[in-house]
């Protein structure tokens, strides 16, 4: 049972490790350590566990805040599926979204992303008959990039002395892809700008348009969904619900409402954490899944030399994009309302992705550069049993943190009428996008609520309300300090800053963090 730090606690006398945060990386690390017989204490500042995998309930509805679809879990033998099965004792189940998982809408043209590599190629060729060679070359290079990825990240788990000896050799093949932008690679394959725009139609999954993003990140996302998309049956809260028993079986504990203020250091070693109320917990291993910025800038004592050293390192990376999400509740079942399982990616037709972003950042009255529409209640076969005659929709777009900075000092849910009016303008614009494609839903809206970068900052504690941790630019992949090991003995990192954005990246980060801690070959156990 997950406990609240604000209530009487039942804790073990001592723990083998303390993990800060309960995002996907933290949960995965905790479950892997639990499988090794370790007692782990997880400390979550939010009132619910799960990071971006958590849900919230309001007005008789439930919304998933971060999980909209996951790839590679359809194949029982894929690495991602095997890891999920391992850390949940096979108790997390998935619903396939069907043949079309994403639909890219550019102006008045629609392009379906379909399940399966050959069907995907054939579908793209049907839209661009003269581009078969470029499309096949694109798919080929996506696979090449992903094949090189494994050694790049496994190097992060190796002992430092071994990494220094062979790290360059392991990482070199991946740098061919990671140090080029997505646009640079695609432009080398084709000069068809419309095709490039379509193939980059999922860039919102990692937050950077093609002239800024690393092709390695793009290739990782694209390959992730080649086999289609899936959604956790019972909603994304099932991720925590199925991992927690594994943690508890090893006498581990998840505490919510438990905010860590500082990592306690004894010279060059991490020995515990100090809570916001002044209480301390101690363990020989401390793991932070709170993001590299939060860890080094907020939790390391400022007088420690590491704080100064990493203040300089952190200038080499930037926070990722912030966003807004309109959570909508509707009267009627997904079937009655005709809600699809596929996601919609809606883009203006007049500029490329980078141009659309630049235009919006200069003037927020200009068209949204991307509007993503997800239908979670249609994806989850258990939804209508849990919420009869109701449905939900999520609409996400780019919303810069700077646009909301003036309300930064205000409290959540009490930011004032001006803030609410500002949000309402964005909400209505997003609703109009929805009604353009689903006009019959106008009379079915029961409620809606817009989250902003300040909402993300409040709950996830990212300084600028960023969605994906650090930006996935080519420069990001050059930073050796984005590593599960830190210069402080006993202190490790996990989460998307260590690998890449999204649930899959965070899941894999838990794997490499645990490998770095234990020195064990966990692949053998996962595939046993």
Question: What share of the residues lie within helices?
Answer: 25-40%
Oligomer: single chain
Q: Helical stretch count? A: 19
- Overall mean pLDDT score? 94
How is this fold's topology laid out?
Blueprint: E1 3-4, E2 17-20, H1 24-35, E3 40-43, E4 55-58, E5 61-64, H2 79-88, E6 94-96, E7 100-106, E8 109-114, H3 117-127, H4 132-157, H5 160-178, H6 182-187, H7 193-199, H8 215-225, E9 230-232, H9 237-249, E10 253-256, E11 260-266, E12 269-275, E13 280-282, E14 285-288, H10 292-299, H11 305-313, E15 323-331, H12 334-337, E16 343-347, H13 353-362, E17 371-374, H14 376-379, H15 383-386, E18 390-398, H16 417-437, E19 445-451, H17 453-460, E20 491-493, H18 502-518, H19 522-526
Helix pairs in contact: 1-9, 1-18, 3-4, 4-5, 4-8, 4-18
Task: Explain what this protein looks like in three dimensions.
With 528 residues, the chain is α/β, with parallel strands linked by helices. Among the domains are: 3-55 and 77-90 and 234-317 and 482-526, FAD/NAD(P)-binding domain (3-Layer(bba) Sandwich), CATH 3.50.50.60; 98-228, no CATH class. The protein has 19 helices and 20 strands. The protein has helices at residues 24-35, 79-88, 117-127, 132-157, 160-178, 182-187, 193-199, 215-225, 237-249, 292-299, 305-313, 334-337, 353-362, 376-379, 383-386, 417-437, 453-460, 502-518, 522-526; strands at 3-4, 17-20, 40-43, 55-58, 61-64, 94-96, 100-106, 109-114, 230-232, 253-256, 260-266, 269-275, 280-282, 285-288, 323-331, 343-347, 371-374, 390-398, 445-451, 491-493. Strands 8-7-16-17-18-15-19 form a seven-stranded mixed sheet, with helices on both faces. Strands 1-10-3-2-14-20 form a six-stranded parallel sheet, covered by helices on one side. Strands 11-12-13 form a three-stranded antiparallel sheet, with helices on one face. A hairpin with a 2-residue loop joins strand 11 and strand 12. The longest helix is centred in the N-terminal third of the chain and has 26 residues, at 132-157. The chain is globular and about 60 Å long. The two termini are 29 Å apart. The model has no long low-confidence stretch (mean pLDDT 94).
